[in-house]
Each structure stands twice: as C-alpha cells, then as structure tokens.
Amino acid sequence: MRPLIATLATWQRVLAETLAQAEAASRASGHLANPFRSAGNPLDPRTSDDTALFKGRASLFRQLEGILSDAGRRPPPLLVGGRRNGKTSILRFLPTRLSSRIAPAFVSLQKPADGLIGLLGRLADAITAELQRTPGLGVPPLLDRKQLQQDAFAAFGVWMDALERWLDQRVLLLAIDEYEALEEGMGRGCYDERILALLRSLIQDRRQIAVLLSGVHELDELAPIWASRLINTVPLRVGFLVEDDARALLREPAPAFPPATLAAVSDTLLARTHCQPYLLQVYAYSLVEHLNETGRRSATEADVAAVEELVLTRATSYFSDQWRTESGGPLGEQLLAALAQRGPMDAEALRALVSDEANFTRTLKRMTRRTIVIRDATSRRYTISIPLLATYIRRESAL
Ligand SMILES: Nc1ncnc2c1ncn2[C@@H]1O[C@H](COP(=O)(O)OP(=O)(O)OP(=O)(O)O)[C@@H](O)[C@H]1O
Ligand SMILES: [Mg+2]
C-alpha cells in the first residue's frame, strides 16, 4: 500500500508541475485560459474553479438561513426559477453558505426512481452520503434495507426517529431538486399520494429535519393535491443575476483572469442576455475562445457581433425549450412569435391575436412568472425579456 501511495504522490506532483508549466507557457504566448462554461452543467463548490464562477444569491442564502433557524415554525422553502437560472448550483453551494448547524443533503429526482422503495432508498442514500462527508459528525444511523423491502414507510419512519436523535441540535436540510418529477412519477403510477403525506410529515412533525423543494413549477401549477398537502411553503424565486453580480462574473470569473478582457463589452453582454447566468457564461466563453483564435486580449463590440451566431447555436436547446415548452405550449409559442416579430405589445393587442380567452390569461401569467416576458410598468406593454431569445424566435418563426 505504502509504495502505491508514494507513487501516487509523485504523480500528483509531476502533474501539478506540468499544469503550472503549461499555464505559464500559455500566459507567455498570450493565450487566455477560458474560465467560463458553455455546457450549462450546475456549478459545484467541490470543483475548485466553480467557487470563483458562482456569483450572487447572497440574499437568497440569507433568507434561507432565516427560515431554517426558526425551529418552532419552519415553513418549507420552495426554490422556483426558470430553466438554467441556477437552481441546482444554489443547492450545490448550500453547504458552503449556510451555518454549520445545518447539514444539507442534496437529492435530484431528475432521473426517475424505480417505485416507492427505490425513491425512499435514494433519499436515504443521499442523506447518509452527505452526513458521512461532513467532517466531525461521526457515523450516522443507517436505514434497514431489509425492513425497507417489507414495509417501506415504517422502516423509513424508524430510521428518521434514529436520525433525529443522532442529529441532536443540528438540522438536516433535505434539498429535493426537480421536485415536480414526483408528480410525473405519480402520473406514471411509480408512487402514490402517500409520498406527499410523507413529505408533509417530514415538514410538520420532525424538529431536526427540514425539507427544501426546488423546481421550475409553482405548487399551483401542479395537481391541486400538492397545494393542499404542502401548505405554508415559502416560494423563493431564482431569477436572473442582479446587474452587479453579472458584472462581477464577466470581470473576475477566476483569480488570474485579466479583468479588462470583457470590460468594453460588458454593458452589451448584460443587455443581450438580460443577465441570465447560463447565457452570460455561454457568451463570455465564446468571446474568450474567439479572442484566443484571433490572438487578442480584449473584446470589442465587433467581437460580440461576430460570436452571436455561435451563441445562438450553442444555446439552441435552452431557447427552444423557453419558446416551445416553458411558454406553456402552442398558444405561448404563438404569442412569443408575435412579440419577436412585431416588438412590444399590450395585453389587448396580444389578446386580439388569439381565440382562446381563458387560456390566454393563464399563458400570459405563466410567461410573466417565468420572466420569459416582462411588462413595462409605464407603457403596460409586454416584451420578451431576453433579447437573444427574441432574436432566436424571430428567426425560427420567420416565414
Ligand atoms: N450564481 C451563478 N453564477 C454564475 N453562473 C451561474 C450561476 N448560476 C448558474 N450559472 C450558470 O448557469 C448554468 C445553469 O445552472 P444550473 O444548472 O444551476 O441551473 P438550473 O436552474 O438548475 O437549470 P435546470 O432548470 O435546467 O435544472 C451553469 O452552468 C452556470 O454556467
Ligand atoms: Mg437544475
């Protein structure tokens, strides 16, 4: 074992030296290391570069801390925000932003669980793995898997009792990402309404356990049973970045990044993306790449125009999802196409385009909630919030 550890340490050193040499060489050659992300995966503090990339959200963490510290009456927070607005990244950063009294356990329901036993097993795995990772906590009690197979809810309840005793003064925060997948699972018959009863009892009856849900949907957009079972949820909105944080992302995405690189174009980037974090990253990534290809160190307005086509291609699935799915379907798609083609319109002008009155109001509300469209308070006219999205829709819907 020892020789192996020694060999590994040597390799680590060699690798670190090689990396440092490569970085120094690329700096000398004028090549910029590209710190931005174009793939749209969640940021994670366990990846060291991501810590510098993750900007803002301070007030949301403060709000969460406030809600969770009220032990007597702890309403469940519901993180709601549009696709790729940064919900999962926020959940990933919880351990670094909340007080050590709170132990967050992250579980994503993006991949469907195999029935109720599979789901409870997955929750247990996520909780146990997180608690075992947290330094100084010791070994948490384990869920009895045999019991789980025989009587899933009873076994989970017994385990929760033991876990609460073990947690003592600490609070376990069960952060469930893509929570609406539970409804889809119920629709497919994978689980039934007892899963909502379980969530409700975790929220109401367990002093040492808190539940946070995160997703794109508000409770009232799901089946009515959700709002009636999960009363008191506190919606916390995950919108686009605020302007200062968006500027900070472009100026200092990594400690060694030269702040002047995107300085001359940051106003344009903020305007074209409306500070949507994923699009800011894709745009900035594409610009740094373009600068490297053309052997320069700072971007101009001409560069912004030159890479826009590439940005539209790279983010196609995001744009198409906003336009066709998040908009609520064909009616939303039609309204967005009209706004993209004709520019800002008031509600009456938009209503005149459609025949389905009841659906019209619901669709416009849905798109406003998701910040796909925004209404100007003075002119009362609606417009597509992200100019890049408007460009995409204009092109796609052109005859
Ligand atoms: N706070 C932030 N600072 C900088 N960039 C961010 C931030 N949050 C998100 N991003 C960027 O947005 C991308 C999407 O983030 P994330 O996956 O967390 O969003 P999401 O809301 O969970 O998306 P989805 O709805 O698709 O699950 C990331 O890859 C990252 O580039
Ligand atoms: Mg996510």
Automatic annotation (TrEMBL):
Q: Mind listing the GO molecular function terms for this protein?
A: ATP hydrolysis activity
Q: Give the originating organism.
A: Candidatus Viridilinea halotolerans
Q: What is this protein called?
A: ORC1/DEAH AAA+ ATPase domain-containing protein
Q: Which is a Pfam family this sequence falls into?
A: AAA_22
InterPro entries found in the cross-reference section: AAA_22, P-loop_NTPase
**ORC1/DEAH AAA+ ATPase domain location, by residue?**
78-222
